[in-house]
Structure of Bifunctional hydroxymethylpyrimidine kinase/phosphomethylpyrimidine kinase:
Amino acid sequence: MTSSCHTQNSSVPCVLSIAGTDPTGGAGTAADLKSITAAGGYGMAVVTTLVAQNTHGVRDVHVPPTEFLATQLTAVSDDVTLDAVKTGMLGTADIIATVAAWLDQNPPSILVVDPVMIATSGDRLLQPEAEQAMVAFCRRATVVTPNIDELAVLTGQPRATTEDEALDQAGRWSAETGVAVVVKTGHLDGKRVTNTWVGPDGTRIAVPSTRVDTTSTHGTGCSLSSALATRLGRGDTPEAALTWATGWLHEAILHGAALQVGSGHGPVDHAHRSRRLQAAGAANPWLAHDAVPPVLEAPQDLDAPRDPDAQRGRTLTTETPADVVQTVPSVAPAVTPVGPWTAALWEAGAETTAAIGASDFVQALVDGSLSEADFTFYLAQDALYLNRYARALAALAARSASTESQQFWSQASTGAITEEADLHRTWMATRPESARTTASPVTSAYTDFLLATTLGEDRAVGVAAVLPCFWLYAQVGGGIPDVPADHPYAAWLDTYRDPAFVTAVQGALEQVELELAGASPSVRAAAARAYLIACRHELEFFEQATRLEPEAAAPPQRSAEAAPARQSAGESSGDSADRATADLAVAAR
Ligand SMILES: Nc1ncnc2c1ncn2[C@@H]1O[C@H](COP(=O)(O)OP(=O)(O)O)[C@@H](O)[C@H]1O
Ligand SMILES: Cc1ncc(COP(=O)(O)O)c(N)n1
């Protein structure tokens, strides 16, 4: 009698990886466990082979007796109810037969087969005489995830040279076997890398991403298939599961090199997304404004606030004070400060300004690789933001002390509304669903703060609060050397490089300089705090699209009726097996 590894109705699926090892942690069971964890599952691993390998390649493979493999498998299935099984390196025909026999006795509702044959390093991970056994084994899967070379072996076709050829090969094989295929174009040339779910009924769900120029791709196939198994195991549709797995892996590949593991083909950073989201949930960055002294007599009193995390790191190192000062980034402003107070504000906000420029969102926006869905979400929020920002600017106009100031803020307010109308007329007009969006918590928090500050605090505080929206946008726009005509977001980026916008930023800087010079020391300190909080809101606003998770799926079903994957090698029928694949095919439509 088996029992589930956690409480009923938990949305944490139990996922078993059956694969070989990699002692450097980038591929095989290690990569699988990290990927399952990252994708929200409870990971388990049964080892098929011990592989002495590193980021340069495979040195040796040790195959333990298959009797022991069978004992490992039954030790798991006698005790734990599985939501998904993923197989990776099986190595030999004997291993394939042992795993197949166990699957016959313990059919999982989701079986993802990564038909590992040859590693990125070129080393063989499947004996040549076992290839046909692997081909037959793939027929029992819910979905297989071959690379282009493995797809050729699977389908008995020459290696595909284009994506269309690969999709045709997969389509024919899927229709014949009833097993879905994820076609991966990582091994083809091209700026884009697309993962396409090809279903037996002809369904095609393409999930594109951009190619990362990196050598840190060791274990990408293992990681994709494990993440996919986990998301399917928690009840996601094929589209949701593949979209999540592809996006998560893209981020992991993007940040793999920074891990500096090994000197060959390094691993991906499986935990990057978790760490990023964990950092986003921490309150510490919002407390940076605590470093502003209670009164500001002179601009130099506003020393750059220190990142509390960086502070902690420093106390553990033997860095000299000079090193410490250098860790606060200094970013050259695209629009220069107009006096000592705005210069001091710039330095105080430098850390957040640097973080905005370095964020994945801004980087992808600038290089054009940002997905259209993320951009649309961002612009829809921007339209909502601009509407309330315009009201905050109008409040400053109403409270102005001079005709010049009143004119400046009135015009800025009109400009913000005109911009909002432009977004509705252009990008959002062709995407009606974006016009129906309501303000996100991040957008509301920012605009509530701006309205409360401009209406309820001293005027200098309100003026400082609205400044980052001018200044930091110009910073993003000014950091882009040249926007090519075919850049998907050229029109947006050009707005912020427009000389008229730069003039508006200079006008806002002059207002802030004037207000701070004339304010009392305690009001100046409040204004500096408001500026820093608004800088942080800007970062959150940009990054919010990268924190969107798909809707939560239904908890995994773990009943006796759970539909198993295909029953046995070479067979393409069987009621329950058909149900599993049919369910996925229906969900994919
Ligand atoms: N250079 C890259 N840039 C972006 N994504 C990549 C890159 N290399 C691999 N991937 C992602 O990893 C997935 C699996 O990689 P691939 O090399 O096709 O698998 P395998 O490890 O099985 O050979 C790809 O489908 C793609 O999503
Ligand atoms: C145990 C094991 N399984 C799979 C791979 C393939 O990984 P790669 O993505 O480098 O081809 C590997 N190197 N080792």
User: Anything to note?
Assistant: Confidence is low (pLDDT under 50) at residues 305-328, 559-563, 566-589. The beta strands are 14-19, 42-47, 50-54, 57-62, 84-87, 111-113, 143-144, 180-184, 192-198, 204-210. The CA atoms of residues 233 and 375 lie 29 Å apart. The radius of gyration is 28 Å.
